[in-house]
Design brief:
This protein has about 425 residues and is α+β, with helices and mostly antiparallel strands. The protein contains 8 helices and 21 strands. Strand 15 and strand 16 form a beta hairpin.
């Protein structure tokens, strides 16, 4: 019995997706629920499992194709025996049948009478200088020409120097040594997720008036609190007590005081959100995603840490839902995990502000007239200056700073 393998139902806000790669080929045996193919949306990668056990009879959509919900991807023969996995190599064309030239690299006659493909950079250099590539010795594999080969040929043999005037002194010619190894250009299309990230960042730059304010935070109190309670917290809650829960709590308290920082722009209206859905940037192999902590103001430290750990793991595995990545009102991103000391984060539209965390470094600071070493972090707030004035931005950072330098405020809500 033949069964159609179709694109699963896509999230409401997603119109189409891209078929990334097949894990099976025609003729392969498959088990029920075994992943056949990956499909990438703007934010997540979806797996398409085999509905029954059998043999993948026919693949109808190839890698890189844009697909829509319900589209037939392949035909699965239920319960059939597996066919040979390897397809026979195509038979060579008869000598009388002309072969089409390659669409990737234009062939040119080589010094030994064969065809020699040129990379785009080499072809451009040859054409601009009106050179005969068959006269140039290639140093790359199979005698291919590299850009260095052409430059060396031009410097040494490719063109005669212009005759010097009698009164001009003789100028020695500098001979460039031939560079070994291929210098090729590789063109790789963006993944759908990367293209979507690029589109949204360009949209953010074009549609908002971004300005960034900075402050610094002494994390001594937070680190002391974590050191005192981390073992008991992990034992009772089943999750480690991290820094992000403190920053989420501090951000929520600041946003309550300055609600315009939690707002967004729609046309000529400012939309104030009387809820606090905090997006937290997570790095994945395919790009940055921002899972959303819904109603973060109602979450405990343990709730925040558990939810973030779960979302981050599923995001890296490509198993997080699109609805979990959209709808935040404010974003926190932590470049410090990669060693960033200071940066200007870009707003995640349609939000109006984003908080950037950075690396914690021991620095000399003055406390009560004494120079002491403290664990310091620079924090940055990028905001849409169309609706947020500098005063609100600076006071938001000050509020976050005060909460982190005196964590008791987060418990008391002050």
């Amino acid at each position: 019995m033949s069964i159609e393998v179709k694109v699963p139902q896509l999230p409401e806000s997603v119109q189409d997706a891209t078929l990334v790669s097949w894990h099976k080929k025609a003729g392969d045996a498959v088990n029920r629920d075994e992943n056949l193919v990956d499909i990438e949306t703007d934010k997540v990668v979806l797996e398409v499992p085999a509905p029954v056990a059998g043999v993948l009879k026919e693949i109808r959509v190839q890698d890189g194709t844009t697909v829509g919900a319900g589209q037939v991807l392949a035909i699965l023969e239920e319960g059939a025996a597996a066919k040979a996995a390897a397809a026979p190599a195509p038979a060579p064309l008869p000598a009388s049948v002309p072969q089409a030239p390659s669409a990737v690299a234009a062939p040119v006659a080589s010094a030994v009478g064969g065809d020699m493909p040129l990379s785009p950079s080499v072809r451009r250099l040859v054409e601009e200088n009106k050179l005969d590539p068959s006269q140039i010795k290639g140093s790359a594999r199979d005698g291919r020409l590299t850009k260095g080969d052409v430059l060396d040929y031009m410097a040494n043999r490719g063109s005669a120097p212009a005759p010097a005037r009698a009164e001009a002194p003789s100028v020695p010619v500098v001979r460039l040594p031939a560079r070994g190894g291929a210098r090729e250009d590789r063109r790789v299309p963006m993944t759908r997720m990367r293209a979507r990230i690029a589109e949204r960042l360009s949209q953010s730059q074009a549609s908002t008036v971004m300005l960034t304010s900075f402050n610094e935070v002494d994390l001594s109190a937070v680190m002391a609190l974590r050191a005192k309670y981390k073992d008991k917290f992990e034992k009772e809650q089943g999750v480690k007590l991290g820094f992000m829960s403190f920053f989420v709590k501090a951000a929520v308290e600041a946003l309550k005081k300055y609600p315009v920082v939690n707002a967004s722009v729609e046309g000529n209206d400012i939309v104030y959100h009387d809820y606090w859905d905090i997006s937290v940037a997570v790095s994945t192999p395919k790009g940055l995603v921002t899972p959303v902590l819904r109603d973060a103001d109602q979450m405990s430290f343990a709730d925040i840490e558990k939810t973030l750990a779960d979302m981050a793991a599923r995001a890296r595995d490509g198993k997080i839902g699109i609805e979990e990545l959209t709808g935040g009102t404010f974003t926190i991103t932590n470049g410090g995990v990669f060693g960033s000391l200071m940066s200007t984060p870009i707003i995640n539209p349609p939000q109006s502000a984003i908080l950037g965390m950075h690396a914690t470094k021991e620095r000399a600071v003055v406390v009560d007239g004494q120079v002491v070493a403290r664990p310091m972090m620079y924090i940055a707030l990028t905001y849409d200056h169309r609706i947020i004035d500098g005063k609100e931005a600076v006071l938001t950072l000050v509020s976050i700073k005060e909460s982190l330098e005196d964590p008791a405020r987060l418990v008391l809500g002050i």
